Amino acid sequence: MYGWMKTNIAVLGAQWGDEGKGKIVDMLTPHFSAVARYQGGHNAGHTVYVNGKKFVLHLIPSGILHDGVMCLIGNGVVIDPQALFTEVEELARGGITVDGRLKISEKAHIILPYHRELDVLSEARRGERKIGTTSRGIGPAYEDKIGRRGIRVCDLLGDRTALADEVRENVSARNRMIKDSTLDWKPVFDQVVAFGERMRPWVADVSLSLHAMMAAGKAVMFEGAQATLLDIDHGTYPFVTSSNASVGGVCTGLGVPPRAIGGVLGVAKAYTTRVGEGPLPTELSGALADRLRESGQEYGASTGRPRRCGWYDAVVVRYSARVNGLDAVALTKLDVLDGLPEVLICTGYQTSAGTIADFPADLRLLTGAEPVYERMPGWSSPTKGITEFDRLPAEAQQYVRRLEDVSGVDCSIISTGSDRRETIVKKGSAVERWLS
Ligand code: IMP
Fold first, then answer.
1. Torsional sign, CA 420, 422, 428, 431
2. Distance between CA atoms of 132 and 100, rounded to whole angstroms?
3. pTM for the full predicted model
4. What are phi and psi of 215, to 5 degrees?
5. Is residue 162 over pLDDT 80?
6. Are 189 and 163 in contact (CB under 8 A)?
């Protein structure tokens, strides 16, 4: 069916998020007719500069900043209408209109005004075992979806009596969860009706639109949010987000078949970070952690929280390569390691059950586990801004080659700075082939 089409690729996080997907997606976008988000919500976030203007996007793909590129939000995404409108308004202030270029799945679920409050409450109830969520109401919205009482975009635009019943049922489920709560369903109903009317021009059958584009030979980029180790099934459960951030989410979250995905690009940092709670086996503390955090500006784009920092973990990236079938990695922030006397790579974990080289399901195995490290010499001359692999300092080349060996996947793209131009696309790599 798609044998003759251009290559559609999925771009997704290979670690715990914040790998710099925004820059990679932004730089690849001119090669695609459309960018489609398949999961998550406004818990994601990236900042993009266009002609000196700053745009902070959480929900709308950054493809919107490129003329003529269609941006689609799939059924796998949960939408906070207010957050969506705020982004649309910010774009309008910057001279960008979304009309005609933004499509939102009629099957996407809505984050209701009180989901955020439930998110905060559920974290408080978990106490010591809290997840460290972004408090955006993402989890509770997905809970309602799986609980089969969620409200979808199409419900806002259909029969009002049916919608009133759904809102009433949803609000009473919420009231049962919160002691002595008597939230009135009617103001919620009025609010979501208004939300629906404002969204109406953008609502579409996203699966149908994508199939039409692909059948016309147009290339689509499938954009993931969060990352594989935050995936509800394959991540460090329960310290995960509530959606499938790994490649399976592309099909379920957009209504496209597996064969529509021509390539999978994983984005991985040259070291590792995570925000929120949960295991991070290579986590550093003290001066080295501060050094990575400050040079890498490792503060959450959505919440401003300082990110936990550690060495590159090849167990994690190897696992991501397996789960997602990564064809290539875009290695980001190599320049952040410039000037370090040595760089370490984790290749396994020493646990109470012996040394393991595959990421475990049971996180208890990681308690007290020690990373097994390979030590490599650092480099003193900067990689910042370098655009050809051969021009990297010899030790940086050696480091990247070793990451490829131990992670089992080629680093087709190497990012050496935040600017679009500060990028190496390796000659003869999968990415070069996709884009040609
Ligand atoms: P939630 O997605 O807000 O429910 O948060 C669940 C977990 O995912 C928490 O550890 C968050 O810090 C993490 N998380 C959610 N979105 C992002 C992201 O865009 N980058 C990194 N971590 C994220």
1. negative
2. 37
3. 0.96
4. -65, -25
5. yes
6. yes
